[in-house]
# Entry
Amino acid sequence: MTAKRQTWQKDAVKHALGQSTGFVSAQDLHQILKQHGSPIGLATVYRALADLAQQEQADSLQSASGETLFRACGQTHHHHLICTDCGATVEIGAAEIEVWANAVAKSHGFTPASHTIELFGICGNCKH
Amino acid sequence: MTAKRQTWQKDAVKHALGQSTGFVSAQDLHQILKQHGSPIGLATVYRALADLAQQEQADSLQSASGETLFRACGQTHHHHLICTDCGATVEIGAAEIEVWANAVAKSHGFTPASHTIELFGICGNCKH
DNA sequence: ATGAATGCAAACTCTTTGCACATTG
DNA sequence: CAATGTGCAAAGAGTTTGCATTCAT
# Structure
């Protein structure tokens, strides 16, 4: 059978993913790991992330720029409010919206799975 | 100044996009157009789509495989409920969510601008 | 020992861009 | 006419893969 081996690389990727807030790209993770001294390869990061996603220990989604972003599962589910001027992001936890999303999906005969919500605007600082 | 010119290429892309059901990638459109005899270039399709998206005459989103998908869109502001299995999409108009989005942005000191909401799930047909 | 995992670099796919030429207004 | 749009091909960005080597079991 498939005997998964435990390597420090996989642990490093998993840990770095867990430390990150929100979504991170494979390349970001690779950068972070190297900055912490790991001589890990980019391809390995991609492979480790694919494994984690397959084992459902990580969520993945596509960013607007075409990157695949990953997030450790088990974190509180939240969304982002992003300043289109300076790029600042605020995390939004919104139980009401989760409920709404599920209700909408069901009303159309869908089995709710996931959703992406991103709000854009101009933050207080940039308004001045 | 910048005077947009009308070319048969832009019309062709717009028309092909309008004819398509659901979302299509730029490459798909290019294929379709060529199959219909248009000697249009791929880069031109990308440029035309970027224009349409900017003029808000087209919606765009990222597919799971990393492609950017486009779809002609009417005037009404709406979001999508997408089947992760067959790709079927349902348009959702949700006034309540617009209100919520603006309220959240304001509560964080942001001036509301826009937002993206995508719901994913499995549709009735694919459930069986 | 033995084969799965890694690292490197080449290959791939999708998208963007530079530049000469055709076209529009 | 002036300059915007197009087409081509080369360049970029992100991701995957082939292969020899390393390493967990």
